[in-house]
């Protein structure tokens, strides 16, 4: 067992866990990369640490400085952990719809939290990213992490997640499946896996059905932290630099209902309490494994823990209000028999 000098050394090197029950009867095995076992309970600890180290290296972040980021949660938690351990201040700007649980976690790590209306248009100075940029500009020693356009984000997966998966599968992986938020995970991991396999590993994106990454119309969906929901005509103007479309061979489009159903099955049949984007990714991985051969091996990323969503995807009142239950009183998902 490893012995660490700080919590930062505990980031990464997450296990692969076989989905023995959900994948039963499918031609190829599916292994889940358990990113919820990172200290901040998400894959974003990796990017947060990598971005801070790169900024220290370049001199953009100096001792006594302030880390600033606009985020919907997990990146902020990762940055708050790194800030606490390395002695920086941390200011996180969040849309006001963010779950109170995540706000409380950030404050517990000592981060300063600023909430701004989620409905502000992209050009408004109080929109999440603009407000974060303004704060970092006005704060002496301020540094904006900027995960959407920061190359250290995908690079964390080129040097971490990708090599880990290759070693853990002894080079047997044939398909890699992940959701797309900033695109850092899929682009960095996919780049490494393609390089090391001479291009043979297939990279499959998992996207909410109406998200524009997979060709949707940009209308809203329930799963948090993945996909892109701007007008399709302007989508490419705001494509994050962290997302390298060329690495992705195809995108599976997944309905909210299917994501939530798979998330519930992961908890109840595999004992894996994961978030909504893990449901989306595993739903896509099940399709991939169904079409695969016995020589194939599928690896899917589970980006975060279900603990952050107890008042949402695991709450009957929320599910009912959102139309994810038939309301027949059985307590079973409306889509369970379909
Ligand atoms: N799932 C969750 C829960 C996340 O917080 C994120 C990060 N936005 C992702 C998936 C997507 O990861 P990435 O930003 O690396 O594309």
UniProtKB/TrEMBL annotation:
It comes from Actinospica durhamensis. Keywords: Pyridoxal phosphate. Residues 8-304 form the Tryptophan synthase beta chain-like PALP domain. This is Pyridoxal-phosphate dependent enzyme. GO terms for biological process: cysteine biosynthetic process from serine. Belongs to the cysteine synthase/cystathionine beta-synthase family. GO terms for molecular function: transferase activity, transferring alkyl or aryl (other than methyl) groups. Its cofactor is pyridoxal 5'-phosphate.
